[in-house]
Design goal:
The chain is an alpha/beta fold. The chain has a 6-stranded mixed beta sheet, sandwiched between helices. Strands 2-1-4-5 form a 4-stranded antiparallel beta sheet, covered by helices on one side. The longest helix is centred in the last third of the chain and has 18 residues.
Length: 263
């Protein structure tokens, strides 16, 4: 969506190896990611798919600064990343809300962390509550919300302080199909309105095709990039369009067919 020449996110030669204590003084090493090179332009929506256990979520957590990398570089613009930071927003699969705060309070918390003056916070909170379709729920606590509504709050909280990159780790994976479809549509509309830069992990080929400019495919462990597919599909996306179906088949073949049919 942007013609920016400098990538917003750059990953260079990223490797991740875990050391596992098997007991009795025996250590084993698990090579999770190998030689990951990736660039995401400002305003792009890029999805990452791959077989179970290939390192999709590990990659996202490293980019978020929540897991240490073994080697390689991560840059946001020209700034090297070595840990967590407010330049990245993260939405997890679990509904990671503060149960003692209302919808407004959860969103306001992120704004406070970034140092946004209190006098400006209410307008921002109201804007993002409206954006995710939760007008009238600002004073409600998370225990009274459905799973889909909780994830709407999580998206609003992550976007409200305007991070440079939004990282999403299977955010709709725990939702039923109708709710998942509704949130996919919501996210697509938000992305088009805000020009956010999004890196989105999913196990669903159809979800990746519905949302993304590009789909990056990881191999089995150690995860390496085996395909970086730029999509030539009009928006809004039609899952019954022949070109959409052709892309779906191509990606399913790359994944050994195991992911075909999921949305």
């Amino acid at each position: 969506m942007s013609t920016a020449t400098l990538p917003k996110l750059v990953v260079k030669d990223l490797d991740k190896t875990y050391t596992v204590d098997e007991g009795g003084g025996k250590l084993s090493h698990v090579h999770a990611l190998k030689g990951i090179n990736l660039e995401v332009q400002e305003g792009e929506f890029v999805s990452i798919i791959g077989p179970s256990g290939c390192g999709k979520s590990t990659l996202l957590m490293i980019l978020a600064g929540l897991y240490p990398k073994t080697s390689g570089q991560i840059l946001i613009g020209d700034k090297r990343i070595e840990g967590p930071g407010m330049d990245r927003g993260v939405v997890f699969q679990e509904f990671a809300l503060f149960p003692w705060l209302t919808v407004e309070g959860n969103i306001r918390f992120a704004l406070s962390q970034k140092g946004i003056p209190q006098g400006k916070q209410k307008g921002i909170v109201d804007k993002y509550i409206e954006l995710v379709g939760l007008r009238g729920f600002g004073k409600v606590y998370p225990f009274r919300l459905s799973g889909g509504m909780k994830q709407r709050v999580a998206v609003a909280r992550a976007l409200a302080y305007e991070p440079e990159v939004l990282l999403m780790d299977e955010p709709f994976g725990q939702l039923d199909a109708p709710t998942r479809g509704s949130l996919q549509k919501m996210l697509n509309e938000i992305w088009e309105r805000t020009n956010a830069t999004i890196l989105f992990v999913t196990h669903s080929i159809k979800e990746a095709l519905y949302l993304s400019d590009r789909v990056v495919v990881l191999s089995c462990r150690p995860g390496t990039i085996v395909e970086d597919l730029r999509l030539d599909l009009p928006r809004p996306r039609d899952p019954w369009d022949q070109k959409f179906i052709d892309y779906q088949h191509r990606l399913a073949v790359l994944l050994g067919g195991e992911e075909a049919g999921f949305f």
